[in-house]
Every structure is written in structure tokens, then in C-alpha cells.
């Protein structure tokens, strides 16, 4: 049985009156047929045919994300902000993902766990560009960080938000335009430049009893760049849900994070299976456990696997896929280009 680390944090606090440890389970639901998305998500066969007519190139920009100019509708720029946080530009649409930009990550119990970023220590809310959407995957503090979201809502009071319904009690008091997506449901983001991208929720981990609603992963598709991203920050996914999907770019943890007898974040072989399932061209690893941490739990947390061991596994199972390592604060640019005859 796998367990989500947030549940361990919350369960350890007597004042929260939690007496049962919540487990992280792979969701068992099947894809929903409901959709309110005008943008059509291509099926796997159609995407394979598209790939015959073009190839994908990737470069790492030398410009730092802070103050950098995001432009160009035919590319995707992924800027890792450490932890679970990202700043994306997809087809000209700017998306902030699971941000932790104010204070540390401590779940309200710093004696138990208190973590700070290692590299982007000076990155602040004021350094963000204009945003088109806030994307939230999970309802707990390492994804839905209230110390960040409260001032963010004051800076961007009209910001569009797409989230798991599990975070409704946190987001509703802060933001006026929130779309809650169940796994299988879709929506659309329109950028200030008129570009549009599609968002489809997928099934992530279950934080609680088996009948509880799973948290979200997401498929992001850009008609402008003809690229699709898959993102889920704990490498927990429903295989049946994803077997008809395809993603050019898979953003996932690849290094496991564990407590004694419990898996907090998966990776390694599970990340390989995910990339193979989605027929990924690129895997962008996120090392969301690489933080300066202290407290009791940090003394018993440990990791399993390395980036190099993941690359070796990937080269055997999916030899055409490439690993693109994000550098915190620097945009990783991925674009399509016409195939030269």
C-alpha cells in the first residue's frame, strides 16, 4: 500500500483530530464521457499520423524565468519552480501550476516538517508574468498552498482557475472564476493573446478511503503547437484511463520518495510504464523531494533511484524517447518544426 506524505503530516498532528492515516491508491474509476471542451483532443492514431509530418525540437533557454519574455505560439516553455511548482507557456497561454512562492512548505506543523527551496530562494509573486490560468492538481498544501494562494488572489483577482473539486473549500473564498474538473472532464483556457489550449483532467492518487474522489492529473493540448503535455506530480495514474491517450511530453517524478514501509512519490519503473503508455517523445523529470527540509519526518524520508538509473531504464524500454532535465528558473523550450524532405 502506498501512502501520500501529506496524509502522514496531517495524521501526526493531534490538534487536527485525525486518527486514521490516509492512503494513496491508484484510482480505479473509468474515463468519464462528459466534456465541455470545444477543442477536440486527437486520439492516439491521429496523433501518430501527425508525428509523421513533423518532428519536435527542444532547447533550454539561457534566459531566467524571472523577468523573461514569453512569446511564440508554436512552442511550449516549461519553467520549473522547484517542488511541485511550474510556470508554463503553452501555445502562448501562460499557466501557473501548484505554486509555492510565499514562505516554506510546512503543512501548518513546522516541527514535523519544514521545507524551503534550494535554488529559487528569491523568486516572489511579483516576479510572475501576467497569467492566464492557475492549475491545481491536489487539495493538500504541497499543491494548494494557502500562504501563496491568498496573496496571489489579491494580485490577480480575475484569474481563471482549473482545479480538482477536492480543493473547493480552499479556492472558493479566494477566486471568483474556478472550474472544477472531475477525471475525464475537459475545459478550455483562452489566453490574453486569443490563443486557446484544452485541459482534460485525469485520475491521480486517492487520498483517503477507496470510495473517495481521486486527485487530478492533466492532459494539456495546444492546437497551435500540435503538442500534448501530461502532468501528474506523484507518478500515480490509472492505466485504463490513459490507455487511449497519447502525450508528446510527460512531466513526472522519476525518483521515488519513501518513508519506512510507505511510498510517498513513485517513479523509476512506474515512470517508465507511464512514458510507454503515453508513447512519450520527451520525459521531463521533476525532483519534487529535492528541498532544504528539517523536522522529524525529514530525518526518516529517503529516496530510491536516480536520474541516471531512470535514463538507463528508459533507453531499454523506450529508446526513441529523450530525457530533458529542467533547470529551476530557466525555461525549457519545446517546439515543432516541419520535417525536411
Automatic annotation (TrEMBL):
Protein name, entry field: Metallo-hydrolase/oxidoreductase superfamily protein isoform 1
MF term (GO), any: hydrolase activity
Gene3D superfamilies listed in its UniProt record: Ribonuclease Z/Hydroxyacylglutathione hydrolase-like
Keywords linked to the UniProt accession: Hydrolase
PANTHER family: METALLO-HYDROLASE/OXIDOREDUCTASE SUPERFAMILY PROTEIN (PTHR36142), METALLO-HYDROLASE_OXIDOREDUCTASE SUPERFAMILY PROTEIN (PTHR36142:SF2)
Species per Swiss-Prot/TrEMBL record: Cinnamomum micranthum f. kanehirae
Amino acid at each position: 500500500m502506498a501512502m501520500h506524505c501529506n496524509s502522514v503530516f496531517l495524521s501526526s498532528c493531534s490538534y487536527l483530530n485525525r486518527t486514521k492515516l490516509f492512503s494513496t491508491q491508484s484510482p480505479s474509476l473509468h474515463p468519464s464521457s462528459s466534456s465541455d471542451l470545444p477543442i477536440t483532443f486527437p486520439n492516439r492514431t491521429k496523433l501518430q499520423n501527425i508525428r509523421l509530418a513533423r518532428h519536435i525540437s527542444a532547447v533550454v533557454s539561457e534566459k531566467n524565468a524571472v523577468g523573461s519574455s514569453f512569446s511564440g505560439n508554436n512552442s511550449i516553455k516549461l519553467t520549473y519552480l522547484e517542488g511541485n511548482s511550474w510556470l508554463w507557456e503553452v501555445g502562448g497561454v501562460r499557466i501557473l501550476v501548484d505554486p509555492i512562492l510565499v514562505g516554506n512548505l510546512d503543512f501548518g506543523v513546522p516541527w514535523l516538517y519544514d521545507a524551503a527551496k534550494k535554488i529559487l530562494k528569491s523568486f516572489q509573486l511579483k516576479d510572475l508574468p501576467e497569467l492566464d490560468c492557475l492549475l491545481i492538481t491536489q487539495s493538500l498544501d504541497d499543491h494548494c498552498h494557502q500562504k501563496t494562494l491568498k496573496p496571489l488572489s489579491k494580485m490577480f483577482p480575475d484569474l481563471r482557475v482549473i482545479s480538482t473539486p477536492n480543493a473547493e473549500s480552499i479556492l472558493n473564498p479566494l477566486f471568483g472564476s474556478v472550474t472544477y474538473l472531475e477525471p475525464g472532464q475537459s475545459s478550455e483556457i483562452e489566453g490574453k493573446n486569443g490563443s486557446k489550449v484544452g485541459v482534460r483532467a485525469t485520475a491521480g492518487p486517492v487520498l483517503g478511503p477507496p470510495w473517495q474522489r481521486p486527485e487530478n492529473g492533466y492532459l494539456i493540448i495546444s492546437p497551435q503547437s500540435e503538442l500534448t503535455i501530461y502532468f501528474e506530480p506523484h507518478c500515480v495514474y490509472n492505466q485504463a484511463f490513459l490507455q487511449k491517450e497519447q502525450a508528446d511530453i510527460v512531466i513526472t517524478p522519476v525518483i521515488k520518495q519513501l518513508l519506512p514501509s510507505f511510498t510517498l512519490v513513485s517513479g523509476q519503473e512506474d515512470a517508465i510504464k507511464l512514458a510507454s503508455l503515453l508513447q512519450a517523445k520527451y520525459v521531463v523529470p521533476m525532483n519534487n523531494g529535492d528541498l532544504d527540509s528539517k523536522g522529524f519526518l525529514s530525518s526518516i524520508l529517503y529516496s530510491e533511484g536516480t536520474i541516471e538509473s531512470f535514463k538507463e531504464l528508459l533507453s531499454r524500454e523506450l529508446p526513441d524517447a529523450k530525457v530533458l532535465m529542467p533547470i529551476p528558473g530557466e525555461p525549457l523550450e519545446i517546439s515543432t518544426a516541419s520535417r525536411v524532405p
